[in-house]
């Protein structure tokens, strides 16, 4: 089900900080959910047409379309799905930043493996729905929870950064593998676990080649390359393709999309509020470019930055003096670090006291829900639920629009 309050987190720290600003990977009250009705409908249709309750074909007919519900990808640009009666082709244009496109063939269980030619010759083949999935990024986990597929999770990169109680309980069960606790993929652990598939975090690792050579499919998921917040949220449909839950994913995503768009529309005509984005780190201030994920969120929340017209989709490295000159008078500050008090911020850099937002006590940080191990829900559930992030930002920049807002991710520095 879709929840309106967060309890799922991913990595925080220097890498996560830059990830928020640039769109780079760091791998990180209930609202009514459409999932239950979608699941019931899917279950009802599963037993018809030679398909069992699991979604496997029991009596293959080459003339039958075994995908009556097909995902429509409307916001994401770094994955696509095409349908071919008994199999899907999942294509990732950039498996890693600048990497060559990869396509994966997802064959419905019970169907024969298709003859693959041309661009698909040699493509990895995965039988779906999968029952054992290894995830290299905690940003994947909210999608598995939403699709009621958490039982397929049999391996995670690092257990320490997981925050949702039900996911923590799941990974604590015997047999759930931690395969990159030291920061690199333990290929031997993955091979010993024999998952149906390993989904990456959109980064490369020498261990992946070893895993693939052992016959275990490795699928790229570079959601962090998406600049559109709804594009990142649409990776729900990526996992639906692996788990056979397309109908459930469509209903859930539609709810998030509608919520996000309604929030953006509520401040569309408001005067944009100038924002100080980010904070200095080791002498450098990484400003989100004008075409970045972070700037898109700020703009959709009725805000702007002094760099909004820049065409960069990544980050713009600069220094404190430049930021002070261009954004020193901005009335609001949106940070993405570990600060919870102004004392902490000023202890790191006393010159931050010169910013108008600091003087006014209007500095906010995405650190409301952080675990003792450093997991931050903002980098996990915030990816799957950009409407919750946007709700926080609207309440910060236009408090008159949401005077009683219950914040999911942001807190004001005390």
From TrEMBL:
PROSITE patterns: FE_B12_PBP, PROKAR_LIPOPROTEIN, TAT. Residues 132-401 form the Fe/B12 periplasmic-binding domain. The keyword Signal applies. It comes from the Bacteria. It holds the Pfam family Peripla_BP_2. Keywords: Signal. One of its GO terms (biological process) is cellular response to iron ion. Residues 1-29 form the signal peptide. SUPFAM superfamilies: Helical backbone' metal receptor (SSF53807). Belongs to the bacterial solute-binding protein 8 family. PANTHER family: MOLYBDATE-BINDING PROTEIN MOLA, VITAMIN B12-BINDING PROTEIN. This is ABC-type Fe3+-hydroxamate transport system periplasmic component-like protein.
């Amino acid at each position: 089900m879709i929840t309106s309050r967060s309890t799922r987190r991913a990595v925080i720290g220097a890498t996560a900080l830059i990830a928020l600003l640039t769109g780079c990977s760091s791998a990180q009250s209930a609202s009514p959910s459409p999932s239950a009705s979608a699941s019931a409908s899917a279950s009802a249709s599963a037993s018809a047409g030679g398909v069992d309750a699991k979604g496997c074909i029991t009596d293959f007919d080459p003339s039958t379309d075994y995908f009556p519900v097909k995902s429509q990808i409307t916001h994401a640009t770094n994955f696509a799905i095409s349908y071919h009666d008994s199999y899907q082709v999942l294509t990732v244009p950039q498996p890693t930043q600048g990497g060559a496109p990869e396509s994966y063939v997802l064959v419905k269980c019970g169907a024969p493996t298709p003859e693959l030619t041309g661009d698909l010759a040699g493509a990895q083949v995965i039988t779906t729905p999968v029952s054992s999935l290894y995830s290299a990024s905690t940003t994947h986990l909210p999608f598995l929870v939403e699709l009621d597929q958490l039982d397929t999770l049999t391996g995670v990169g690092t257990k320490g950064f997981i925050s949702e109680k039900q996911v923590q309980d799941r990974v604590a069960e015997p047999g759930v593998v931690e395969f990159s606790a030291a920061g690199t993929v333990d290929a031997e652990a993955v091979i010993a676990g024999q998952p149906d598939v390993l989904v990456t975090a959109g980064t490369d690792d020498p261990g992946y080649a070893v895993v693939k050579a052992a016959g275990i499919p490795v699928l790229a998921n570079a959601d962090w390359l998406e600049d559109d917040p709804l594009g990142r949220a649409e990776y729900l449909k990526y996992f639906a393709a692996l788990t056979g839950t397309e109908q459930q994913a469509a209903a859930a995503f539609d709810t998030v999309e509608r919520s996000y768009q309604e929030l953006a529309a509520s401040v569309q005509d408001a005067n944009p509020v100038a924002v100080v984005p980010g904070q200095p780190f080791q002498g450098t201030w990484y400003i989100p470019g004008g075409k970045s994920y972070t700037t898109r969120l700020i703009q959709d929340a009725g805000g702007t930055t002094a760099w909004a017209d820049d065409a960069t989709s990544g980050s713009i490295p600069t220094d404190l003096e430049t930021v002070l000159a261009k954004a020193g008078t901005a009335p609001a500050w949106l940070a993405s670090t570990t600060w919870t008090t102004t004392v902490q911020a000023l202890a790191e850099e006393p010159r931050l006291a010169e910013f108008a937002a600091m003087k006014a006590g209007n500095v906010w940080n995405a650190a409301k829900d952080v675990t003792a191990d450093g997991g931050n829900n903002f980098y996990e559930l915030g990816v799957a639920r950009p409407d919750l992030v946007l709700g926080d930002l609207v309440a910060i920049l236009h408090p008159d629009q949401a005077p009683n807002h219950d914040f999911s991710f942001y807190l004001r520095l005390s």
